[in-house]
Design a protein that fits this description.
By secondary structure, the protein is of the alpha+beta class. The chain is 39% helix and 16% strand. The chain folds into 5 domains: 5-148, no CATH class; 173-332, 2-Layer Sandwich (Sulfite Reductase Hemoprotein, domain 1), CATH 3.30.413.10; 354-429, Alpha-Beta Plaits, CATH 3.30.70.3340; 439-611, Sulfite Reductase Hemoprotein, domain 1; 613-754, Nucleotidyltransferases  domain 2 (Four Helix Bundle (Hemerythrin (Met), subunit A)). Strands 18, 19, 20, 21, 22 and 23 form a 6-stranded mixed beta sheet that branches. The protein is globular. Residues 73-84 and 611-624 have low confidence and may be disordered.
């Protein structure tokens, strides 16, 4: 039975680090003041976000995502007075796990909290965190105290802060690593936690560490700041250091990180982080959140100017005793196995399925006789009972060396190879031995419309459907396609990392025949390898119910037409984006509702997506309105810009993307005013007057963000572009047109004269 908050506070006081205990006391006090109306909600919002407490989407009812049925409400007994408020509807608690490292007791506590305060499920994120959903905000101080008692903090898991520092889950055991980056990632995480120089950012800041350049385990090049292990000979001795990248990020428009330093000595790791934080605090955007990430600052200043400012800040830093102290502790970091190394006995009897599991889920470590085992978690979810089982196995077979991964899985490190058959048997009994780790069926997906307020379409529902079909077809065992990566986001924000997938999807919507229909934009040819080496571009929006067929077409064609050793990315480049779009164009139309209502329902949700409250008059009764035609033509222009970029026609590509945005603005003006101007400056001015200044173009979440893409493109129209800026303008054009579709749908649904 769950005890009251005062009970836990008293019981855990001696077990919590004093600083964490004091911070939680402050948060609980602020929570009480907010309840009394003595703290403004906007001020408190940043406070709770910095403690990892999010509001979440509230939809009553149930959904079955193909993995399990989830009740979209509180566990029994919780109040549900009003939806979509942080006070009386379900919330989410994010739990920060630096470099993904966990021990058995920590797993057990997370299991207890999932069972007592959430829906019995813990979710692993793409930043190696855990999340608990359907949590009441009044329970969060108790949750924080129980976590703090086992050495876990939720501080700065969210908010305008340094988010969880991620690292390769194979660091220290990887056969390809330069050296083990684990202690450096840990040092960075705890040094920057609560650091005074990191408290006034305009937006979040993400850091990652990788032990090598080639493998994608840490995806360094899509981070605000990333570090790749490197060594250099100095005075006849090898010195450790890092290749440093800055200014990367996915989000709505992805930026590739820039090489900041080819070699940074480890002694400069923490001073550099502080200097970068100072530059970001001083010069980063504060008013407009849409351009407040450091990637925009690096782009605005240029890499050389940014480096100069960082160097100036570094020169002015006063030495911090912790720099040397933390570095002295690095050599003391060591993971040790529980058991002696052993060899897998070839002749020993094994359970059915062991060979497949061994081939897919077992990684032979650089240390002979040991292996790292991946526990593949469907959709990143694991039940409380399963978490406890993993904790038991971590104690039995390892020295509690568990890590989460950016692929939303768990790994057990330092398993003696001789124990693999026994471990497999126990994992299988716990339904944790599915042999799909890293395969095409190991799909990454964000929470989407299940719990995220920004979700547009059901990323989890689609992921579960694709996963089931791929497994049924044996795609995970097909050597030609088994190693492809599929990633899905519920909206354009890329929490599912769709830009770096071989095949990616993100949720959008379209207004069809008076109904809002769930769709997914299809992206092909992103590069997961080489630490997220390059990004894919969207080639078209497909109705959600036709996405599985679109995926099957790409799989079949790649399987049958690829050259020997040809990667999927190279294959896409060879056949070209125009051919890619032709492959799925016939899947894009939506049949009338009366002909096939299934198109108007999202995956994993029996409810109709959204129905526009429209009367049927002469205008509304048109099969396709002029605005629909014009927006469709704009999408074709944006895709044509991709083809021009692919052909190396950089300036034409950028100009075409700008025209797509301008013509989208004209389409909206035509609907609102009955006519539209032709002159680009007049289009810009009238769009600003009638759609931006009136906030008609603002949706509840982006708040006019995508209008700025059009404004920026208009301002720089005629200026030269490089391939990166042209690609970015194409991406921005696609997002502007998505916002135009949404704006048009809202105007259609508005009452006459409204």
């Amino acid at each position: 039975m769950k005890a009251s908050n005062p009970f836990w506070k008293d019981q855990l006081e001696d077990q919590m680090p004093p600083q964490l205990a004091a911070e939680i006391d402050v948060f609980e006090h602020e929570l009480a003041l907010r309840r009394q109306g003595k703290i403004d909600e906007r001020v408190f919002a940043e406070t709770r976000l910095r403690r990892g407490v999010y509001g979440q989407r509230y939809d009553s009812g149930q959904r079955h995502d193909g993995i399990r049925t989830r009740t979209l409400a509180y566990p029994e007994g919780k109040p549900t007075k009003g939806p979509n408020t942080v006070w009386d509807a379900p919330g989410m608690q994010r739990i920060k796990i630096p470099f993904g490292g966990l021990n058995a007791r920590q797993l057990e506590v997370i299991a207890e909290l999932a069972e007592e305060y959430a829906d019995g499920v813990a979710h692993v994120t793409t930043r190696q965190d855990f999340q608990l959903h359907f949590v009441h905000i009044d329970d969060t101080p108790t949750i924080m105290r129980r976590l703090a008692a086992v050495g876990i903090t939720t501080r700065e898991a969210c908010g305008n802060s340094i988010r969880n520092v991620t690292a390769c889950p194979l660091a220290g055991v990887c056969r390809d690593q330069v050296f083990d980056v684990t202690p450096y990632a840990k040092m960075m995480a705890y040094y920057l936690l609560g650091h005074p120089e990191c408290q006034d950012f305009g937006r979040k800041f993400k850091i990652a560490f990788s032990g090598c350049k080639e493998n994608p385990c840490a995806l360094v090049r899509m981070h605000d700041m990333g570090f790749i292990a490197a060594v250099r000979e100095v005075d006849g001795a090898l010195r450790r250091g890092f290749e440093v990248y800055v200014g990367g990020g996915l989000g709505t428009v992805p930026y590739q990180a820039k090489l900041f330093a080819e070699f940074l000595p480890v002694e400069e790791l923490l001073p550099l982080a502080v200097a970068v934080a100072r530059v970001y605090t001083k010069y980063g955007e504060k008013k407009n959140r849409n351009t407040a990430r450091i990637k925009f600052l690096v782009h605005k200043l240029g890499l050389e100017e940014f480096k100069q400012r960082v160097e100036q800040e570094r020169a002015g830093l006063r030495p911090d005793p912790r720099w040397e102290q933390m570095l002295r502790e690095i050599p003391t970091y060591q993971e040790r196995p529980l058991k002696d190394p052993g060899l897998l006995q070839i002749t020993a009897p094994r359970l059915e399925g062991f060979e497949r599991w061994y081939a897919r889920n077992v990684y032979r470590q650089r240390q002979p006789g040991y292996a790292t085992v991946t526990i593949a978690l469907p959709l990143g979810d694991i039940t409380a009972a399963q978490l406890r089982r993993v904790a038991d196995l971590a104690r039995k077979y390892t020295r509690e060396t568990v890590r989460t991964t950016v692929e939303q899985n768990l790994v057990l490190r330092w398993v003696s190879e001789a124990d693999l058959p026994a471990l497999y048997a126990e994992l299988k009994a716990a339904q944790l031995a599915e042999p799909v780790a890293g395969s095409i069926a190991d799909i990454v997906a964000c929470p989407g419309t299940d719990t995220c307020k920004l979700g547009i379409a059901s990323s989890r529902g689609l992921a579960a459907e694709l996963r089931q079909r791929l497994l049924a077809q044996g795609a995970d065992q097909d050597a030609a396609v088994s190693n492809l990566h599929i990633k899905i986001s519920g909206c354009f924000n890329s929490c599912g990392q769709h830009h770096v997938a071989d095949i990616g999807f993100y949720g959008v919507s379209r207004n069809k025949n008076g109904y809002t229909v769930p769709h997914f934009q299809l992206l092909v040819g992103g590069q997961w390898e080489e630490n997220a080496g390059s990004y894919g571009l969207a080639i078209g929006a497909i109705p959600a119910k036709r996405v599985p067929e679109a995926l099957e077409r790409f799989i079949r064609r790649y399987r049958s037409e690829r050259a020997f050793g040809e990667s999927f990315q190279s294959f896409i480049q060879r056949i070209g984006k125009a051919e890619c779009k032709r492959m799925v164009e016939d899947l894009m139309p939506v049949p009338p509702h009366e002909e096939d209502p299934s198109f108007y329902v999202d995956w994993s949700d029996a409810r109709e997506f959204t129905i526009g409250d429209l009367g049927v008059g002469e205008c509304a009764g048109e099969l396709v309105s002029p605005v629909d035609f014009q927006l469709a033509a704009c999408e074709r222009e944006a895709f044509e810009a991709q083809l021009l970029l692919e052909a190396g026609q950089i300036e034409r590509a950028a100009q075409t993307a700008y025209k797509a945005m301008m013509h989208g603005a004209q389409a909206l003006l035509r609907f609102k005013l009955g006519a539209f101007p032709e002159d680009p400056e007049a289009v810009y001015q009238q769009f600003r007057t009638h759609f931006y200044d009136t906030q008609l173009f603002f949706d509840p979440f982006a708040q006019g963000k995508f209008a700025h893409y059009y404004f920026a493109a208009h301002a720089r129209n005629g200026a030269p572009h490089d391939p990166e800026s042209a690609r970015r303008q194409i991406e921005e054009a696609q997002l502007f047109l998505e916002a135009a579709h949404s704006c048009y749908a809202r105007m259609l649904a508005a009452p006459a004269g409204g």
